[in-house]
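hey team, just a heads up i'm posting the complex here instead of the shared drive bc the drive is being weird again. everything in one block, sequence lines first with there labels, then the predicted structure for the whole assembly after. its two chains so it's a bit long, scroll down
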Amino acid sequence: MVMMSGGVDSSVAAAMLQEQGHDVTGVTLKLWGGVSDSGCCSVSDVEDARRVAAQLGIPHYVFNFSDDFDANVVAPYVEAYAAGTTPNPCVECNRTMKFGRLFARAMQLGYDAVATGHHARVVAAPAGLAIGRGADRAKDQSYVLYMLGAAELACTLLPVGEITKAEVRARAAALDLRTAAKAESMDVCFITRGGRETFLGDRIARRPGAIVDRAGGVVGTHDGIDAFTIGQRRGLAVAVGERQYVVDIDAGSGDITIGPRADLLRDSLTMRDVTWNLAPPAGAVEVQARAHGEPASALVDGCTVRFVEPHVRVAPGQVVAFYAGDVLLGGGIAT
Amino acid sequence: MRPEAVEAMRPFFADSFANPSGSHAASRVAKTALEEAREVVAAACGAEPHEIVFTAGGSEADNLAVKGAAWAARDRDGRDGIVTTAIEHKAVLGACGRLEREGFRVVRVAAQVSGVLDLDALGAALDERTAVVSVMLVNNETGTVQPLAEVAALVRERAPGAVLHTDAVQAPQWLDLSVHASAADLVAISGHKFGGPKGAGALVVRGDTVLVPLVEGGGHERDRRAGTQNVAGAVGFATALRVTDERRADEVARIRQLRDRLEAGLARSVPRFVANGDHDRRVAGVIHAAFPGVEAEALLVALDQRDVYAASGSACSSGSIDPSHVLLGMGMDRDRALSSVRFSLGYASTDADVDLALSVVPEAVEMLRTASTS
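-- predicted structure starts here --
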């Protein structure tokens, strides 16, 4: 059962599996019940997925998981921003929807495996199956799949992880798929044109407060902590000599602390919900704290990551993934 | 489609494509065909030919009826009340929602667990300011027949002057409209529900019922629906309706036998099978049932894979399933609504179809129940 979002990657994933001889069924998830012009679950994307499935001659279904999506992805997203943290809704969607409810339904219906269009690989490491980086390093999405355990990996296929994005588009064009030249979705699928602040502003009372410098001096005000993320530079309406970054968010007082980049550097970070798909190694691992961030060398000790070199502060709520080379070992969520 | 309807339509795609409103010989051929079709539809509905307005289907007919009658009443004497049921088709509910946003008072009467609307609640909702009452004849999900004659009696007594509309889109296969829809001022029907073409429907507009048109223009359909008529569609629609009328008694008896065999078989072989709606109030071709512990969405996939095509809830524009407003409107809880599936039988259904369903449904339900508890 291939999850077809209506984009080019999952279209080609379905085509590749069919070429490999699998008996393929396409499914598109209806996740967001609200208004969305651009989201991955809008009607035109469902239509694209349906048309590609028809072109490939495979069955296609739409599953309506919008209630669960609201409870498991959207509500925690809003709560996280209200608490001054930075959620990763795509990770929660993969965890609870794609590899949660959809995975369970596919197994229930007797499918052998589920597949997606993620640029990542399932690799056989000596200690067992693991997620590996996609062949196209610039498009690698292994980070957002860090939560997949042995049970899911044994029944997961990620065919486009073996090829580059350029090859994906070339294959789509060669097959004359209508999604071949379709633009990539970049934003959170349920956020509409109004942007994040409008979306959050409709759902939570905004919490205005002071913008303070490292010494505690008030240098400005802001309309709501939900507009800020640790490490953010944009949107700071203060004129200070050196470039300023958000270095702390105090959800209690509503204060945003800013400072120069040096103030963001940390020797360590702490995490919650740490999982290891492969056994933790004795020495250093590479730690990646953003979807397309550069990995940094660090030691992981329980729920603490100790960086070899100081590392910019990771916003609480973000996934921290551990790698050995191209193999994902595990991860946690920054606190 | 019924082969007779296909054959009747064929000449109007190629040989006779003139505009029925023209004045030359070719137009007269088209006009004659259109008016003959109108006579056939009128006869089937117990109406006069001039009381038939051809539309592009049931949703348009429902919208023309509800909005057109409400606007006309408001213009005439300021009436602002709309009374309908919670189990109507979305075409009626959507039109009522639009009128509500325009300032009309809309009451949506609930149904009982039998699937039949609550007549006491309907009676209580009627008053002298009621402009339109819209109650369907046969529900499109449960197949339950609504007591239209009793509704009409209540309307005439408590809301004299109100227009009674019935969405009879699901009815022609099962009921003689000249009898069962005779109490309504407005009756909506749609071709593809009885073997006619999609995109062809009609609204019966009885007597002096006044409608404000949705589409204005060249005065077609006696100023009630502008636009060059779909001659092929009207001819196919009328032919299918005539054939349906002629064969109704035989077809309904045969389909009822098939349906009852399927329903009894499912009740016997599927543990915890629960039929929705009162069996004796349902038309002959519908089984609507809950399969507790099974998600309808998954069951439909499992059945599709085994060549049994069932349905659940109502399809939204993206093809996904929302919990049925009809079942919720009967007071059913959400879990039961989401585990409910409809099996529909029609004139084309066979004994072999029933055999297939009986061999496949119990196994699919069992598979899903086992997997979801393991």
